[in-house]
Amino acid sequence: VDLRRISILKLAEQYLGFVEAAKRLRIELAADYLVMAAWLAFLKSRLLLPPDPADEGPSGDEMAAHLAFQLQRLEAMREAAARLLGRDQLGRDVFARGETEAVRRAVKVTFTASLVELMRAYARIKTRDDFTPLHLARGPVLGMEAALERMRGFLGTRLGWQELAAWLPADWLDAPLRRRSATAASFAAALELVKAGSLEIRQEGAFRPIWLRPRGEGEVL
Amino acid sequence: MNDETGRGFDAGVLAVPPPCEQERMVEAVLFASRDPLGAREIAERLPAGCDVPEALAALRRRYEGRGVQLARVGDAWAFRTAADLGFLMSREVVETRKLSRAAIETLAIVAYHQPVTRAEIEEIRGVSVSAGTLDQLVEMGWVKLGRRRMTPGRPMTFVVTQGFLDHFGLESDRDLPGLAELRAAGLLDNRPNPEAGSSADGDEGDDGEGVAQGELI
Amino acid sequence: MNDETGRGFDAGVLAVPPPCEQERMVEAVLFASRDPLGAREIAERLPAGCDVPEALAALRRRYEGRGVQLARVGDAWAFRTAADLGFLMSREVVETRKLSRAAIETLAIVAYHQPVTRAEIEEIRGVSVSAGTLDQLVEMGWVKLGRRRMTPGRPMTFVVTQGFLDHFGLESDRDLPGLAELRAAGLLDNRPNPEAGSSADGDEGDDGEGVAQGELI
After folding, report:
1. Which residues of C touch A66 (CB under 8 A)?
2. At C90, is the pLDDT very low, low, confident or very high (cuts 50, 70, 90)?
3. C8 neighbors C24 (Cβ within 8 angstroms)
4. How high is the ipTM of this complex?
5. How far apart are the CA of C152 and the nearest CA of chain A, in angstroms?
6. Residues C183-193 pLDDT 10s
7. pTM summary value
8. What pLDDT, on the 0 to 100 scale, is given for residue C201?
């Protein structure tokens, strides 16, 4: 490549043509070319101007030589890449053993434990029961606040009189203790809601089922 | 890609490749295949007209006595390591691992309570003991089967072995440090539990309540 | 495991197996592995005292011209099907991601200029190298990090891997096609850019150029 023989007009035309084409081509390809073309134009301009003796920078000739080298080197790499890809490739032309039959890696595991670890383990078992932190002892208890929160959410969706049992959270009915706690909490929460005026409550007699009804609905009817 | 460097054989031509070439082909195809291949499957991959059984026979002879053999696997064929070299394939990698928590707890219980049945171990640990855990300890040679317990069901008991004592540097199983010593060594920070009965699970037992509940309140 | 059927060789005994036996063993070990094995790795699996390089050389001669070949991959060895028979293995073809042009060029630059820094790759390509491009090559196992360059900033260098050699059937990185010619032509030299001294990133230094570029594009 001799830059001095490149016509700046031709380059500009080519360049513009390329910009047009680039719109249809892959961006990456375009970017490469654009940078190169810009370089060429810049260098050409440097070559056309008389050398400025005050300019400390490299001469246009030097830069042109370097650019030529760069272009040549890049071209060489592109060719090398093409040659590389043209080689026999593993998995396409050349194949490895297909079966992994014999890759039996017999890992012989030996386990170790020290006496201290053994004793710690035993100590852990022996002290597990009396080392239960306090919060564990609280067991399965549904808090009144939680029940209240829950029931408030339902108020709008329940119609008519329903037994308290129907207001209990389903996931608290699996064990008797949990069911009991849920019942107590929900009942207390129901009383709270009655007090707030958003719920009505009635019971036909001692030990009879407790019925609940959202308040607003009754008034509308 | 296919630089058929002077091999003089052209895949595109219909001519049947010479027998030695067919043998090479079968060799390559079997080598690259993931699974053993039957003669028909091999023939499908080769140019038309090849005598696969003949090539297989030649190939088998060629590998006779080698480190790899052409082996018949059912109706199919595959390369296999020569039987006498199998030991080269099992690469013994010794890996040292720590015992799992379940295993070491089980081991400790066996050591302190031997002879102990599996049910007893579970009772002490408070969780069930997987078969694998005891198997592992037996396989390691630290636990072995003791006598059957003379109780209903005659359950097996487990005891620790000499190998266990050797590993932990104990002269006998009476050498295991007691709880008091454990505490003295700072391994046991809590008071030992006098009787660890009647704990967490009080849920069961009181039935009939579920029904009465709604009305109780 | 060790059914040493009359072969008269006992792995446990210290005697070094005879050369032909060593060759068989290397054959078996290499056949069993998909990935290339280094001479040392092979030696570790063989009985002590084996001459692995000798056995490899004998084995390579033995497989010359066969359907399967013993290929050298850098410092390692692997059995691979003969390249001229690739057309038979169409069913085993592994579909690989198509590399972008940027990735292919970057790969070639790493291979021919290694160890090479990212700035050097960019200088050669004339455009910046996106992080994804190098990542992709690293992920494919073709490029890996080399040593840091002992220049200001101690930049990372990149080199090609054994997997790269294996994939492209290269015995070593000196085997790259056209390497000698490229070197003779001075095209692998790292000739410094005359402007802006040795700085690889030409944005600084000469501002007139930055403007020119910006205007032109």
Report:
1. 191, 193-194
2. confident
3. no
4. 0.60
5. 23
6. 988 888 877 66
7. 0.54
8. 40
